[in-house]
Design brief:
With 260 residues, this protein is α/β, with parallel strands linked by helices. It contains eight helices and eight strands; from the N terminus they run βαβαβαβαβαβαβαβα. The chain has helices at residues 15-24, 44-52, 75-90, 109-118, 138-148, 166-176, 190-200, 244-258, and strands spanning 7-12, 28-31, 59-62, 95-98, 124-126, 152-155, 181-184, 204-207. It has an eight-stranded parallel beta sheet. Strand 2, helix 2 and strand 3 form a beta-alpha-beta unit. Helix 1 (15-24) runs parallel beside helix 8 (244-258), helix 3 (75-90) runs parallel beside helix 4 (109-118) and helix 7 runs parallel beside helix 8 (244-258). The chain is globular, with a radius of gyration of 18 Å.
Length: 260
């Protein structure tokens, strides 16, 4: 399969989940806020706290100031993104995760270039905004992102999940793996991981490894108060965090596949 270990990046939105990812054997975390919204920029306090605690994994921080699938950012939003970058970098961010598109769903070169310049050499991943671009131009777009300086592209292969988009992922990895990391993500679970790794031949993959990723782990991470007050619409659902045992199972599968 590979001469190198296949690395798992776990996306987390809490300190507890970060430590679960570490204990389970993940290689890196993507630190966000509000994973139920697809992941937003994390608080500086969360990053700073992790850096001051005995936490050893690299932390790549999401740069996404609001929810929405357009990824078309105003100048004011770009100012906020760049300010967040400065604050997060000052407090120890090891990398960033970002994506910007034009209204025509092409890569916004100008905004991406500004983020790359503001990263001051830290690695930046272009996130699943890539999956909103034209699949027919996928190779040209990966080449463009490489030229802009991105180190990774997180993608589900233009489908709702990486399992559904594995054919496109395999094509991208086969063509570009020497120059840039194509990292499958979205809907990756213990049950489908081996198939995704086999067909994509990826070097890294991305998962949340939530309690709900397996029927064996179904307990919510937090307790829901029985009351008439909610802080938002998502409060009607239980909050699930990263599960150590799901991470361990994924790491074990990836380790076994690395040896093939």
């Amino acid at each position: 399969m590979s001469a190198h270990d296949i690395k798992l990046e776990v996306c987390v939105d809490s300190i507890k989940s970060a430590f679960a990812a570490e204990e389970g054997g993940a290689a890196r975390i993507e630190l966000c806020a509000a994973l139920q919204e697809g992941g937003l920029t994390p608080t500086t306090g969360t990053l700073k706290t992790l850096k001051e605690l005995p936490f050893t994994l690299p932390i790549h921080c999401m740069l996404r100031p609001r929810r929405g699938t357009d990824f078309v950012y105003s100048e004011e939003e770009m100012q906020a993104i760049q300010t967040d970058m400065d604050l997060l970098r000052t407090h120890g961010a090891d990398g960033f995760v970002f994506g910007a598109l034009t209204p025509e769903r092409t890569i916004d070169v100008d905004k991406c270039r500004r983020v790359m310049e503001r990263s001051y050499g830290l690695p930046v991943t272009f996130h699943r905004a890539f999956d909103l671009t034209d699949p027919k131009l996928m190779h040209e777009n990966v080449q463009l992102l490489k030229e802009l300086g991105f180190k990774r592209v997180l993608s589900s292969g233009f489908r709702a999940s990486a399992a559904e988009g594995v054919d496109s992922l395999a094509q991208l990895i086969a063509k570009h793996h020497r120059d840039i990391i194509i990292m499958p993500g979205a809907g990756i679970k213990v049950a489908n991981l081996e198939e995704i790794l086999t067909f994509s031949r990826c070097q890294e993959f991305h998962a949340s490894a939530l309690d709900t990723a397996s029927e064996d782990y179904s307990a919510p991470t937090t307790t829901r108060m029985e009351c008439d007050v909610t802080m938002g619409k998502q409060d009607i659902d239980p909050y699930y965090g990263t599960n150590i045992y799901v991470v361990r199972k994924m790491v074990a599968i990836a380790s076994a596949m690395s040896c093939r």
